[in-house]
Design goal:
globular, three-stranded antiparallel β-sheet, disordered N terminus
Amino acid sequence: MLGRLPRRVVAVIEPTRAQPLVVAHRGASGYRPEHTRAAYELAIALGADAIEPDIVATRDGVLVLRHENEISGTTDVADRPEFAHRRTTRVIDGERLTGWFTEDFTWGELATLRARERLPAVRQASSRFDGRYPILRLRDLMAILDAAPRPVGMVAEIKHATHFAALGLPLDEMFAAEVAAWRPAAPLVVESFEQSVLGLLRERGVEARYVFLLERKGSPADLVAQFGAAALSYSGHLTSAGLARLAREVDGISVPTALVAAPASRGGPVVVSDLVDRAHAEGLSVFSWTLRPENRFLPGPLRIGSGGSAHGDWMTWFRTLMGAGLDGVFADHPDLALEARATLAAD
């Protein structure tokens, strides 16, 4: 989609917003296994403005924090013989997956598992902490934020709401009940790739800013469930008409970095799209994910050396994205994002 947007070549960074919110993506997940107490507490210590948890559910209705409901890549469940029979195949949001799923476990069972680094080939230092930390519940993160030495926000991502609702686990109802008595020190943001669950949470009176997550390809799972092949695509939401409609229903959008900036051609300079400007013109805030310093995740012109896990020219990449006028960025290494933000503020 980026190639169809008007673009400007990045020569000198001229930020329209020098202080975008830095959200620790699943905690300081560049340094510790994601969604663990260690990752969250390190993110707070490094200065993150907010923390993003991914929220899924157990069979007995407990909200837990995992990247996906399929947990073989982020826990030691595959090595636990007592759970071998739980391995199964499911279709989640149109994707066929085989593994172990949170909805097949009680909280008591999940609490016995230990977290693992999701990207061990890239983050070998983090994988040294495999097996040390248990899975957390949403209420555990709320307690961590309450104990923080300064206000730290939560950007809560509701995962696979249509899938869980079909299982009798309505995440909107469960999340609303969980946060009903919580009085966070910083504003709450709720995001999802399914706009319908955001509307349900708003109807339930959850006081938050609502952000719609969009992919580069495909269509939202809730719309596919309702309309099938006629579902409006993510790219359709990012047209002028789509953004105008979203502005009446949500407070902001969150998009992959490739929709904000990307090389104009193979090996060519990085260019910035007009998406942020167009969304701002409609009154929408704009977040982007995920800022990562490793070569594997950087545009080709900004890679240094051939190792995928080595850090490339992340400073130029982070500054370029923030300089596009983003209201917030998600970063696995919040300290690096804060360093880049500081250089923009000093310009």
